[in-house]
Amino acid sequence: MLNPITFARKPEYFFHPSQALHRFRRLWHNTKAEEIVRLPWGALVRVNTAENVGIDIYQYGIFDKIVPETIWRLLDAGETGVDVGANIGQNSSAMAFRSGPSGRVIAFEPHPEIFGELRTNVGRWPASLTTCLQLENVALGTTDGEACLADGPEFQHNRGSAAICKPASATGRTFKVRLRKLDNYVPESTTVGVCKIDVEGHELDVLEGAKKTLERKGIRDIIFEDFKAQPSPVTQLLRHHGFDIFRLVERWLKPVILPLETSPESGGFFSYNYLATLNPQRAANRFRTPGWRCLMHF
Predict the structure, then answer these.
(1) What's the CA gap between 282 and 133, in Å, rounded?
(2) Going from the N-terminus, what domains does the chain have, and what CATH number goes with each?
(3) How many Cβ atoms sit within 10 Å of the Cβ of residue 155?
(4) Which of 13, 107, 193, 278 is the most exposed place for a label (fewest CB within 10 A)?
(5) Is residue 22 scored above 90 in pLDDT?
(6) Contact 260, 235 (CB under 8 A)
(7) Neighbour count for residue 29 (Cβ, 10 Å)
(8) Is the pLDDT of residue 180 over 80?
């Protein structure tokens, strides 16, 4: 039962109260294996309620809210967004909403089944979100070719856990997927406003495949996961290219960005999400406003 204390503690309910109403109504609803959910900015997605991304979106209206919130604060109308590891499309749709019809979003999802779900979800969105959305069923890496993508042991409960691996070490189902460099998709005339990377430990390869783009300062802000001790190979590479690195930390009133050297337990909720930016003053200004803005668009 959803009680007032839970409501007050959850920004997903407090800043998006209609989601609390949806949760309350579902007490009398038998949850199906798949449900269609409306994200706070209006995009419809079909979710699998047996795994972590799907059940969070079903219950709270959003998954890992600090990532779409960071997209919301940093990506402007008319800019280019890149979503590496798009899954079923939550963050791609946030990018499309923020960049608008005059912008561009490229969404990469290598898993063939999840890509099919992404494409189906995109078909549910209004033209204002899809006009400049480019879907790519490829993995990104250091070279062009093919790679082995494996589900892994946690896939049934975490369908974002599929990862590139060597065939000899693969567990679960495997797929042969196309492998491309991000440099191939970002022409020299283009500057990416926000690039989100969530590829289960493959982040360094993605960035090394964007060497030309990084050298010409062709990406302003990068949101990424990193499970390694800091400073890691990923953060060292990004600093080499002139980025300032921040931890993305959730607090009830709003997200905050803290310097990488700050202890991860310094208030808020610990996460493995980071922000690399070429314009730290702009990012700091964008994170001053209180509230969870991605939840408040309803």
Answers:
(1) 26
(2) 63-295 (3.40.50.150)
(3) 18
(4) 278
(5) no
(6) yes
(7) 9
(8) yes
Instruction: Please give the model's pTM, rounded to 2 decimal places.
Output: 0.93
DSSP codes, the chain? ---HHHHHH-HHHHSSHHHHHHHHHGGGS---SEEEEE-TTS-EEEEETTSHHHHHHHHHSSSSTHHHHHHHHH--TT-EEEEES-TTSHHHHHHHHHH-TTSEEEEE---HHHHHHHHHHHTTS-HHHHTTEEEE--EE-SSSEEEEEE--TTTTT-TT--EEE-GGG--S-EEEEEEE-GGGGS-TT--EEEEEE--TT-HHHHHHTTHHHHHTT-EEEEEEE--SPSSPHHHHHHHHTT-EEEEEEE-SS-EEEEETTS-TTSSSB--SEEEEES-HHHHHHHT-S-S-GGGS--
Token pair listed for 29: 């609803």
Question: Tokens standing for 85?
Answer: 């590891």
The radius of gyration of the chain from alpha carbons, rounded to an integer in Å, stands at 18
Tell me what the pLDDT averaged over the chain comes to. Answer: 91
Question: Can you tell me the distance from the alpha carbon of 159 to that of 199, in angstroms, rounded to the nearest whole number?
Answer: 12
Distance CA 243, CA 204 (A): 15
